[in-house]
Design goal:
Length: 391
């Protein structure tokens, strides 16, 4: 199936240096970007793994002045951004290195643009609200992943309103990315599963989105194909370098695709449950993906059938509705194989809180704008039904 005629803007970082060991090229890249005083934005987990020290050493040995800001929390907040921006000012940083999963990368992106855009942070929320370029930023992902290294998106929680603010603006795009799968080899199983299904969801949503276009389609399909081929193997055999490399590549391709197409209903619905129940982003997507797909297929049978063929669960001879039914079953089986719980089984989620908040979750989901890109745009009542189906 062909995409509508292209009239879309396409942004990706340049260069993207990828492959095992590519992190060793960081000093050369930092020099190329004119940096001398580097702030590394990361989190305590990455420090504990020794990765922050390794990256600092690489830079210091090459003569850079390095400071490390390591206070990013999972699902980062406005407070993390404020503290990171203060660290950048203290160090008089002229280059930001984002090191970690989506949380440090998103925080670093907003830290990088903060000084050049001094309006209140909630005004960054939405599409194209950040106007001015910030400090140059090199993103180095350690999960595979959000694809944040390749996107002009950041998700930051407004702690006062308990809302995950989705920001999409060209100045948030990393200047460059270093994508080294070796940094993901130590991911534990639950993290591999959650971030891996996030990657797959990026590919699927970018492909079925109303904003899909001729440049994003091949990236989205390749993301889906690589995820189908490598995710289960990376989960069951974490030391398999080919599987880790495949998932890392899938993550970056997925980021390139959805950042220039869009995410849709899964992400729209996952952000509110992430904000209320503090579920990891990938997990909150994974629990919703089969139910949202069941709801959406009728509006884009051909596209979802192509997804089914791409993951290998349906032959091209299948009628589209048969292929779509097989895709839904395949997604459910994948969740089961990866030991992804149902929404009701997730830690911290209770029936009482769910029942009390499901209307607000649904209203917030619709208000986020992402569901408008879905092949079938839901009503609030339909979103409530999908949450209940995923329960
Ligand atoms: N900007 C975007 O385009 C985009 C896209 C999707 C998601 N997101 C955002 O990204 C965030 C989630 O990011 P994430 O899923 O990558 O997780 P994360 O960055 O929140 O990290 C989760 C945990 O995993 C640990 N970790 C990271 N790498 C590891 C490794 N190699 N080995 C062991 N532990 C490791 C971290 O220390 C942390 O404790 C959410 O806030 C989500 O909203 C952003
Ligand atoms: Fe995501």
């Amino acid at each position: 199936m062909t995409a509508p005629i292209l009239s879309a803007r396409f942004d990706i970082p340049s260069p993207i240096i990828h492959g095992g060991g590519s992190r060793h090229r960081l000093p050369d890249l930092a020099r190329e970007l004119g940096g001398s005083r580097v702030l590394i934005v990361t989190d305590p987990g990455i420090v504990q793994l020794g990765v922050a020290a390794e990256i600092s050493r690489l830079l210091e040995t090459a003569g850079f002045s390095v400071a490390v800001f390591d206070e990013v929390q999972p699902d980062p907040t406005d407070k993390n951004v404020d503290a990171g921006a203060a660290a950048a000012a203290d160090h008089r940083a002229d280059l930001i290195v984002a090191l970690g999963g989506g949380s440090p990368i998103d925080t670093a992106k907003v830290v990088a643009v903060r000084q050049a855009n001094p309006q209140p942070l909630p005004e960054f929320m939405g599409l194209h609200k950040i106007k001015n370029a910030g400090l140059p930023l090199i993103a180095i992902p350690t999960t595979a992943g959000t694809g944040s290294e390749a996107t002009k998106v950041a998700v930051i929680t407004d702690t006062e309103r308990q809302v995950k603010m989705m920001m999409l603006s060209a100045p948030l795009l990393p200047t460059a990315a270093i994508v080294d799968f070796e940094l993901t080899m130590g991911m534990p199983r639950a993290l591999t599963a959650a971030v891996g299904v996030d990657t797959l969801t990026h590919g699927i949503e970018a492909y079925v989105s109303r904003k899909a276009n001729a440049l994003t389609d091949p990236l989205a399909l390749q993301c889906i194909a690589l995820s189908a081929r490598h995710l289960l193997e990376a989960w069951s055999n974490p030391a398999n370098r080919a599987a880790r490399a495949g998932m890392m590549l899938a993550a970056t391709l997925g980021g390139m695709a959805f950042s220039n197409s869009s995410v849709c209903l899964v992400h729209g619905m996952s952000r509110p449950i992430g904000a209320v129940f503090h579920l990891p982003h990938g997990l909150s997507n994974a629990v919703l993906l089969p139910a949202v797909t069941r709801f959406s297929v009728e509006a884009a049978l051909g596209r979802y059938a192509t997804v089914a063929q791409t993951v290998g669960c349906a032959p091209s001879a299948d009628a589209p509705d048969t292929a779509c039914a097989k895709l839904i079953a395949w997604l459910e089986a994948l969740n089961a194989a990866l030991e992804i719980p149902r929404l009701s089984e997730c830690r911290g989620v209770t029936q009482a809180t769910f029942d009390a908040s499901v209307e607000k979750l649904s209203t917030d989901a619709l208000a986020s704008g992402s569901p408008d890109n879905n092949p079938k745009v839901p009503t609030v009542a339909e979103i409530v039904r999908i949450y209940r189906e995923a329960w």
